[in-house]
Amino acid sequence: MTDINKLIRSLEDYSVGSISGEQPLLVWDSAPIDFRGIYYNLYHLISDEDIRKKDGKYSKYQLSQLDVLIQGLKQGASMDVLSDISFL
Question: At what angle do helices 3-15 and 56-75 cross, to 10 degrees?
Fold first, then answer.
């Protein structure tokens, strides 16, 4: 399994709640260097876990954006496209 596929898998597992946020961040460390530009967005998503528990609308938005990120990674989207995916 490639590093990108490991990342995609960890994000999919995170999106359904089967793993904690720490695991995707650890997998992200082994992602290709050019993908590190979107690390902040991923970190923001994971650090907002407590807010998502309190705000269903925000949770739905962030998880829908995570789906967009996962699909972009699967489709080989450019870093410009991936970095425009916001979790704010």
Answer: 160
